[in-house]
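Subject: Interface between my chains keeps coming out wrong

I've been trying for a while to get a sensible model of this assembly. When I model each chain on its own everything looks fine, but I need the whole thing in one frame so I can look at the contacts. Pasting all components below, labels as-is. Any help appreciated, I'm running out of ideas.
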Amino acid sequence: MPGVRPGQDATGSPLPVGDVERRLAFLRPRVRGAGFPWAQLGGWLGCLTLTGCAYVLVTRHALPPVLLGAALVAMAATQAGLQLGVFMHLRESRGLAWQVLPLALALFTALAMVGMSVWIMLFKSGVS
Amino acid sequence: MSAELAGEPRRRDDLPLELRDERESLRVTGVWLFLVTDILLFGSLFAGYAVLRTQVASGPTAASLFRLGPVMFETVALLTSSFTMGLAVQAMRAGNRRALVAWMAVTLVLGAVFVGSEARDFALFAARGDTWGRSAFLSAFDILVGTHGAHVTAGIVWALGILVRVGRRGLTPRTARKVYTFALYWHFLDIVWVFIFTVVYLLGKVG
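Reply #2:
Try treating it as a single job with all components included. I did that and got this:
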């Protein structure tokens, strides 16, 4: 019917919201507002700070190797989170589930692939 | 409308241009799926590197090969390009085509600076004979970092094509979706680089 928008009846007044709509509300499109790009600025400065900290930690030999490795990987993961959340608008789309589920599966597979390769190849004396 | 749904975009016109058309919006999801496959590609290369990084044969070790100065410079260039691409998308959503083109141009210049600096590094290694045939470590290193560099280079060419289209056709749901999907790809490459910087270069220096 021309002129009728989704969620409205022919007179333009909103349709009643039922249980299904309420339950599926998380699939609703969501977008970030306009205005000064504070989020982007924060994401950029956050990434630069974390990179700088990682560099200083390595060049100053401030931590024992195992702790240093863990700290570096944690800082890299934080930066990845910033990129995904701030710049890739992960939480905004027409249907969040379509990108988050495959992404989570891919991250799991990639981590498993790296972890198990290292485990099998470097500690193979234990399994062969 | 219930209070919990208030503030959500109720009409198509409330959506940003790149998500307004359903078919274009579907293509954004398609690019997310492409990025998923790219995660698996880089995951395999990271796995190979993690296993082979100590197999240096008679060649240099990671700690003796890497110079952190240029790598730090490349990292800052790429992180900043990610920021400027974020500003480009913000400008696009404000309907400001000139700002979009300007920020995208800055992004591409920074991308080119990154690739140039990386290529210089690789040329220096090659001049010393440290090419990928020298050791398993160098093979894994060259393939991992080279694949990322090839992605960035391809991204620059892709974005130039998008800029030409935006110049010719203006901001339409189609051109806006192209800009948006390129932005996703570019930020993804930034994430991959952060892990290369950390796992390959920084941890390589630690030994």
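Reply #3:
Confirming on my end. Chain B touches chain A through 62 residues (CB under 8 Å).
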